[in-house]
Amino acid sequence: MARYRTSVCRLCRREGMKLFLKGERCYTDKCAIERRNYPPGEHGQRRRVKLSEYSIQLREKQKLKRTYGVLERQFRNYFEMAERGRGITGESLLVLLERRLDNMVYRMGFTSSRTEARQLVRHGHFAVNGRKVNVPSYLLRGGDTVSVREKSRSLARIQESLELARRRGVPEWLDADPAAWTGTVRALPKRTDLTMPINEKLVVELYSK
Questions:
Q1: Which of 136, 144, 12 is nearest to 74 (CA)?
Q2: CB–CB of 109/170 below 8 Å?
Q3: pLDDT tens, 40-63?
Q4: Which of 32, 133, 150, 159 is the most buried (most CB within 10 A)?
Q5: d(Cα 161, Cα 30) in Å, to the nearest integer?
Q6: How far apart, in Å, are the Cα atoms of 121 and each of 50, 62, 124, 151, 156?
Q7: What pTM was estimated for this model as a whole?
Q8: What is the pLDDT of residue 1?
Q9: What is 13-43 written as a DSSP string?
Q10: pLDDT of residue 4
């Protein structure tokens, strides 16, 4: 399976915002945006190009893809699912991405980043409603419960992430119980619950051309 293998900090610098791709590092002064808030590359500091309408739409799509760690084909599949469903396409797209198991594991505080969540899910450390699931793109529904499997509760990475989550907080539409190693989807999020600076309308406009 294709993976992005170079520095993920370059992605944040390219988009000009924190995408929170490196866990706890993103909350410290070591964050690349804090130290070098300009695009990567030899001419990054001198790059002052007026963006076209297409470029603005493309950058918004790239922010969304990189935040959730999905590649182009999978992202387009999500868009087509959102387009076929009921409701506003852009908002439905965001909710679909939020429903991914790797994102839910991250949101509940069991990992410090979505990348780490994806790896631990693939390795079989989590269960959904008591059943082992190792597919990061598995879509959760309201009322589903995610739990750390008993043999995985001693992992230092998960324990450290739970400590970080106490400072970061858990979204209101989720319930997290670190003592029981579980988290529950109280309800699927609404657009007002998602505070990331993304204009999903631009993504819809890009794919609608």
A1: 136
A2: yes
A3: 655 555 656 677 898 889 888 988
A4: 32
A5: 18
A6: 41, 24, 5, 14, 15
A7: 0.82
A8: 46
A9: HHHTS----SGGGGGSTT-HHHH--S-SSTT
A10: 55
> Regarding the domain delimited by 9-97+197-207, which CATH topology (the fold level of the hierarchy) does it fall under?
Ribosomal Protein S4 Delta 41; Chain A, domain 1 (1.10.1050)
The upper half-sphere exposure of residue 190, i.e. CA atoms within 13 Å in the direction of its Cβ, equals 2
Q: Express each pLDDT in 149-199 by its tens digit.
A: 999 999 998 988 888 877 778 899 999 999 999 999 999 999 999 888 889
Pick the CATH number of 100-185 from 3.40.309.10, 3.50.50.60, 3.40.50.980, 3.10.290.10: 3.10.290.10
> Helices 200-207 and 89-98 meet at what angle, rounded to 10?
110
What is the token pair recorded at 59? 């950058």
Q: Hey, is 76 helix, strand or coil?
A: helix
98: how many CB neighbours lie within 10 A of its CB?
20
Tell me how far apart the terminal alpha carbons of the chain are, to the nearest angstrom.
29
Q: For tokens 């959904």, what's the residue?
A: 128
